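Researcher: I've been going back and forth with a colleague about how Carboxymethylenebutenolidase might be arranged in three dimensions. Neither of us has a model we trust, so I'd like an independent prediction. The organism is Paracraurococcus ruber, in case that matters for your notes. Sequence below.
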Amino acid sequence: MPETMIAATDGSGSFGAYVAQPKDKPAGAGAPAARGAVVMIQEIFGVNATMRQLSDWVAELGFIAISPDLFWRQEKGVQLDPDAGQAQWDKAFKLMQGMDQDKAVEDLKATIAEARRMPGANGKVATMGFCLGGRLAYMTAARTDADANISYYGVGIEGLLGEVGAIKAPLILHIAEKDKFVPPEAQAKILEGVKGNPQVSAHVYPGVDHAFARMGGHAWDARAATIANGRTAELLARVLG
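Model: Here is an independent structure prediction for Carboxymethylenebutenolidase. You can compare it with whatever you and your colleague have in mind.
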């Protein structure tokens, strides 16, 4: 599954990442322009079919997409299916609970650095995360030099609001109104906590649940996903070129 390997900055090894490349221009149209890159940050299910599909979608938008395996310190190559029964969910939660999120951010820093220098890249990099990845996208916004960050239904962001002042690049928060993992009181804290930082825009999507943008999933909502993805695409085009 991995198409590239990235060295961890702490010297503990290397981890794989799925890479999706934009299609080149037709023959005779000249050399393809350099592209911005998007680091795709996994849900609790690893770099599974959903994350590869989302990475392919970002490549179709014209960007290089790179999705690192953030569970590698516990188990390499995890690919779980949220629609395949409780055992998959149990393993996913165990891996999430076992993750050192500070080290995961360091691995994302290494991925961002790798993405800046990939062949065909223009040096500009955004991050885009979902669920656990949505939380990590907020953390990368506060702790890395990524040029933009996008969080889909990030969990536990209300506990990270002390870092909001460190966010210097654009960050979009996509929040599901009926998210069972982010209850109304948590949503209220997030909205209040980020409103003083003009780099952060938070959008609440009425009537939808966690994972509303996972195409084909049980919570998929075409309208909300299309609106959210439009906001995402606009930011990527504006910041990455």
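Researcher: What would you highlight for our discussion?
Model: I'd start with this: The CA atoms of residues 68 and 193 lie 29 Å apart. After that, consider the following. The chain is about 35% helix and 20% strand.
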